[in-house]
Every structure is written in C-alpha cells, then in structure tokens.
Amino acid sequence: MPADPIDSYIQTAMQQQHIPGLTLAVVQAGVLLKQQSYGLASLELNVPTTVTTVYNIASVMKMFTGTAIMILIEAGQLALTDPVGTILPDLPPSWHEITIYHLLTHTSGLPDVTEPVYGMFIADTRDEALRLLAARPLLSRPGDIWRYNQTGYVLLGMVIETLTGLPFDAFLTERFFRPLGMSATSFGDYNEIIRGRTTLYTRLEIRDNTLIPNPDKLWTFQYRCPAYAYPCAGLNTTVDDLVKWDAALSAGSILPPLGLEMLWSPVRLNDGTAGGIAGSVFRYGCGWMVVDRPGQRWVGHEGGAASVYGRYLTDQLSIIVLTNCQGAEPITLLEGVAAHYLPSVQAQE
C-alpha cells in the first residue's frame, strides 16, 4: 500500500524540527478526511501520542474569547464601540476610553501583562497584575498601532464575568464546551493535573534577548498561566474536541454569518491601514488571525509557537495541528498539509 503523502510530510517535518509529538485533523465541508497522531507525548516515559492526546493550545484560546465577546454583542449586552471603563469603572482613568474593539484587536496601546521575550505573566493574581500595569503609561494612543497584547484579553475576561455573573472558565464551559460535547477540554497550566495531557517541550532559547530555535536540543517547558489569564491562554484540548468546535462554527450554531464576519474582518488602524504582524500576510480580526490571498481566505489562530487551528473559508477546509513542541512552526505545518488539498496553497510555496 503506497505511503500517505501527508504522513510522509509530517514525519519528515517532525524529524527536521525535532518535534516529539503531533496530532492532526483535516475536515472539509463537514467530512473528517484525516485524523492521525505521530510521535511521543512523553519522551521521558516513551508514551506515544494518540488522537485523544490532550495539548495545551496557548493563544489559540483567543479565538474562543473573541467568539464569546461576539455572542454577548449578538445578545445586545455589549457593543464593539463600548468604552471598557463603562463596564469596568475601577480601571485606571487613562484606560477608560479604550473600546472593546481595541481590546479584541490588539490595538489598545495598553502595557503588556507579560514580560518581553520570556512571555511570563508579571503577577500571580489579577489584582496585583492590574496594580503593576496601572503604574505604567499607555504605549500608544488606542487604535494607532497594532501590537500583540495579553492585557486586552485579561480585561475581556473581566468584561465577560461582569456581564454574565459567571467566572470566565465557567461561562465558556456552559456556553461552548458542554453543549458541544467537548469533554476533554479544560483549563489549567503545568501545575494542574490534566488527564491524558502531553509533556510540553521547547526548542527555543534566549540569545541576545531574542528567542531563537536551537537545532540540536530540546528542553521540557513549564507553561505558567494563572487563572486570570485564561482568556489569553491556558486551555487544554484535543483534535477531536476542536473538530466539534469546527463543526459548530460551520453549522452556524455558535454565531450567525454576520457575527462570524465581524470576527474575521481585519482591524483598521486610525490611519486606515490594516493591523497585523508587520512584514507578513497575517492581519488580525477580533481574536482571530486573518489572511486574505487571491482566491483564498484563511482564519484561525496559532498558539505557543506549537499549535494552530485554521479554516480555509473559500474551500471549506479546516486543519488542526497540535504539537508538544514550542518552536514547531505550526503555521508552516498547516500550510504544508493544506497544499495536499488546495492547489491555491501549492501555488504559494
């Protein structure tokens, strides 16, 4: 029987990138085309990955937070133009006119709740983090600059809690995870015992105040995400649960088309330009990364330089790549898989 070219592609990439374990799912027009696991969930214990292996998906979480905010907007409880100070009046006065849209799109100008390079949260509690941030000036006028920022998503979590009366994680469980049967999905960093979760590794090291990949070595990586930062990250899940999420998005049972379009529309800065990662094709919507190419539109999110969920909207193709290696270049993996299904992606290589 001939080898599956996707298996060959993934196995080669894993060897080149020193990725211990990976789980993949491909869905097109509601049909599961492929679901496969590769490598090891634990190098130390020689435990293989399976299609039910649980991964921490880091910032892929932001698409859930953005979608939760849009649900409140659809329900009439909130508007994108609402100043955050009208909902959270105890915030520093200089933050009050920052809007929900600014928070969602990383254009708030707020100081970041994580340290540069290391990406560690500056405090273990939300009160302490907000106290430290309040002493720092805004980095830019809201709407002027796109700058990836975790603070905005901490505040969005607070907005959700204020408007719903529920803890952030409880609201998402009640609204998304339980109704969709996402039974393997839960919050928690490395301190939590999560059944079936892979060990997390990194091939990145800090040199000259910059994270760069080490071609020869892996380390275990203890991912720290306090509960107040769950709207930014901290979610653990499986490809099977993300396939359920994908199906619900496609069916319109989470948001109607207009709500999804609002999520997936690239932000426009005050000067009219699109906001996103400088020097790349990636723009940013409301908790979702967005790529528009001729004949091809991609939305989704990368997390922790290890995992990615992406939807090629024109072709109704969704790809989920979860790895246990920080520095795995997951978007490159996603596009490599997509190229086996979509000639338009092949043409981009």
Considering the chains and any ligands shown, give keywords for the structure:
alpha+beta; single chain; 16 strands; 10 helices; 349 residues
Largest sheet: 8 strands, antiparallel
Which structural category do the helix and sheet elements fall into? alpha+beta
Strand order in the largest sheet: 3-2-1-15-14-13-12-11
- The proportion of strand residues reads 15-25%
Helix content: 25-40%
Q: List low-pLDDT spans.
A: none
List the secondary-structure elements in sequence, H or E.
HEEEEHHHHHEEEEEEHHEEEEEEHH
> What would you call the shape?
globular
> How many β strands by DSSP?
16
What is the CA-CA span between the terminal residues?
Answer: 28 Å
Radius of gyration equals 19 Å
- Let me know the average pLDDT: 93
Number of helices: 10
Structure described in brief:
The chain is α+β, with helices and mostly antiparallel strands and 349 residues long. It contains ten helices and 16 strands.
Q: Helix and strand layout, with pairings?
A:
Elements: H1 5-17, E1 21-28, E2 31-42, E3 47-48, E4 55-56, H2 61-74, H3 100-104, H4 126-134, H5 151-164, H6 168-177, E5 186-187, E6 201-202, E7 204-207, E8 210-213, E9 219-220, E10 235-237, H7 239-251, H8 257-263, E11 283-284, E12 289-293, E13 296-303, E14 307-312, E15 317-323, E16 325-326, H9 330-338, H10 343-346
Parallel strand pairs: 6-16
Antiparallel strand pairs: 1-2, 1-15, 2-3, 4-10, 5-10, 6-9, 7-8, 11-12, 12-13, 13-14, 14-15
